[in-house]
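HUMAN: Would you supply a protein with fold tokens?

ASSISTANT:
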Amino acid sequence: MFLASDGGPHPDPRRWKALAICLIAGFMTLLDVSIVNVALPSIRTGLAATPSTLQWITSGYALAFGLSLVPAGRLGDMRSRRAVFVAGLALFTAASGFAGAALSPGWLIAARIVQGLGAGIVSPQVAGFIQVLFTGRERGKAFGLFGAAVGVSTAVGPLAGGALILAAGMHDGWRWVFYVNLPIGIATLLLARRYLPRGSSHASRRENLDLPGVVLFATGMYLLLWPLVEGDQRSLGHRAWWLEGVAAVLLAAFAAWERRAARIGRSPMVDLTLFRFRSYAFGTSLAGMYFAGFTPLFLVLTVYLQLGLGYDALLAGLTGLPFAIGSATAAGLGGRHVTQVGRLQVVAGLVLVLIGLSALLGVVGHVHHAVGWAMLLPLLVAGIGNGLVIAPNQTLTLSQVPSARSGSGAAVVQTTQRVGTAFGIAVVSAVFFADVVKAGVFRSGTTRAAFDAYSHALRVGIVGCLAFVAVAFIVGIVDVVLGRRGVAASHRPDTAFDQVSSQSRPGE
């Protein structure tokens, strides 16, 4: 914001150019959550990767993304948001080059984790810039465009990856999924230095990044995911589930540390006071469960289409196009009307997602060669619902967050989304690959046995996605009901009298 001659706020004339740059960077980092999905069979061939390797390539990126969001949001609040944005984008771009050059599964996993760190540094700056540069209905529109970028990137990723793999070949085509980030990242870096406002933060420079909190949370989440990814691939029973108990203790210690940090005047990693706002508490919870539900769908779906049905990478990616179209269309409409409709719009979107996933479940295994066509309508319905969920929920969740805490407040929401993504991918892919490995078809060709095994595995995976989305739906319903009760209570005569009386009492 600039100041007008009368001292009032004046919109930054470069705000829409700045938003475009932010959306390009945000789209690119979020694209890498899903673009790798369609490349997993190519990575399996090129690097002789195991199922656990494929899971770490996807969930490792999402987890690193999520763990860096809050410290990066805090850093953006404390220092120059533009400088933090540029540093994160440079790290992401460099890591993309190292990922493309990987010579072993371990190398690729490490590069993906660094990529995720860079993406996590960039993402909260995008939301922070929107909070600072836009107000009122313009802010809702800006978040609507950001939500469209989130939804479209998830569904377009497999399409873009499929085209790259088809052009470069099955053995090494996966490398170009990462190399494509290099020219886009460099160009965006140059534009960012020119058009993003320098701006100073509102936060005190004496604030800290709460490294103990970061370490506790990161270690707890890593141990939470470990049994889901590592262990006997033929059975979920023979795994180190005792680590889940250790993870619970560490996460409880994290919550206790955060409360202590706030009590003694330090800056906690997560500002727990924001959860006193109903919109923030419910919106954050809903976001985590929803991303755990819809994001893994495209991983298991693209693997099913390629390894179970023999689709090439491009055709497998094209299957997600209806979801992308529905999501982009609905996100624009949802962003414009969210302030009038409120959380009910999010609930309506979740209903459409549940309908679409249920219809998809009915198609899988019952149609063979035409299954791609049979999936189009269910994915379109789910995509429309997705567009009505992500952007409106983001706007409603952050509606009461002060601008001075916009970066870290948005980062907590996005951390929940990314951690939900990592957890959902770990859970859904664990049951999916356990089914496939148990049937002995992970390394086989596209036989009838492979089709049956992959179809059963996909149905199990879709049920897992439905369960997560159903929980998000329940959270949304509870929020709507509590919101209506609060409005009704505020209009009761005795409540109104009490409020007026309490305001008129001296010393209160």
In short: The beta strands are 2-3, 9-10. Confidence is low (pLDDT under 50) at residues 1-8, 495-508. The longest strand covers residues 2-3. DSSP finds 19 helices and two strands in the chain.
